[in-house]
Amino acid sequence: MARLSPITIGLSALLVTLLVAGLFLVVRPRHGARETAAPEITFEEAARAPTPQLAVVPEPSPVTSVKAAVPIVEAPPAIDAPLVGDEPPSPPAPTPNRRASLIVNHNRRLQEADEQAFEILKFPEATRASIRQLNEEHSKQTIDAGNAAAAASNRQDALRLLLGPGAAKDFDSQERAAVQRLRGKYRFEWGRQLRQ
pTM, whole model, 2 decimals? Predict the structure, then answer.
């Protein structure tokens, strides 16, 4: 007869233990449920019990007019143009150190991603120099003006004019992939900079 392995014996013992525990939980008597059950009441006991009194709620007084009940509030007059000497309120900006750090890190990541895309797409040196010049202008726009969305849109338009629609699309996809790789690479370092 073949000898059983220790693993088979252990698994069999575990299975038997689980089956016994399961049967115990299903078949065991439920003493707690009987003790907490509501006592049975006969018809005579129910008839002798006092009936609960209903609370009387006073009727609301009728409103004579809807206009009298709801005050009319007029909207303030709209201001079409700002008054002379008044500046429109600007939205609250994030803390300068954090925003500046994010912009600088984004621009570095973009430049490094572009270098990786250059190698993949085998761009000539003249095209690389033009894209580097676009990146410098983009960096100045984002730091000086603080309008990153407009700067990114201007950069994309300039890339389409420089490379053409097909090559710009290929460059954009390679650049995005490189940016994703670089986010993982520099995540710890930039997070430390933001905490400082």
Answer: 0.46
Does the pLDDT at position 106 exceed 90?
no
Secondary element (H or E) of residue 144: helix 125-144
State the residue for tokens 């088979």: 8
pLDDT band at 20 (very low <50, low <70, confident <90, very high): very high
| DSSP strands (E only) in the chain | none
Residue 100 neighbours by CB under 8 Å, 6+ apart = 143
The whole-angstrom separation of Cα 185 and Cα 196 is: 19
> Which residue carries 């233990």 as its tokens?
17
User: Are the beta carbons of 101 and 194 closer than 8 angstroms?
Assistant: yes
- Structure letter (DSSP) for residue 11: H
**What are the C-alpha distances in Å from 162 to residues 29, 42, 110, 165, 172?**
83, 94, 18, 9, 13
